[in-house]
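Researcher: Predict the fold of Cytochrome b5 heme-binding domain-containing protein.
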Amino acid sequence: MAADNSQPQAEVMSIASPINFILGSLFIVLLYWHFRPKAPVELPRGPPPTVFTTYTPKTLIEFNGENDRPVYLAVRGRVFDVSPGRNFYGPGGPYENFAGRDASRGLAHQSFDQDMLTKDLSAPLDELKDLDAEQLENLQSWEDRFSEKYLVVGKLVAVNDPEAPSA
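Model: Structure tokens for Cytochrome b5 heme-binding domain-containing protein follow.
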């Protein structure tokens, strides 16, 4: 008697089936997209570094925002870069009188008039000795606001001060 080999034969699966080819291709495409060379990232350029400088009224006046220059103003001897507030302190702004100047007296008096500014840029700095308590408080609140919002870029000294930059 012959042996009955009627059991079904196991099919041999080939890994070269169409579905495996599609999945393999998809895997390779995903790997390429993940590891492909990417364009170098370009970081935005920051503003140029600011160096703390000693100013006199004559050298500070140049920083009034005209001709795309920065806008600086001084309060009690500290020079602030108010360029981010150019719409307020620059040319055409409501406080443009203070651009490039010592704004201490005007801020203390809450007055933005020209007569609050020292006309003679060679004169000694305004010592503000005649201000009353309310005016000093006004000035302090302005100075605090500037300190929180703007960078201090230097100090203001009189033209004849030993620390004054030489012309």
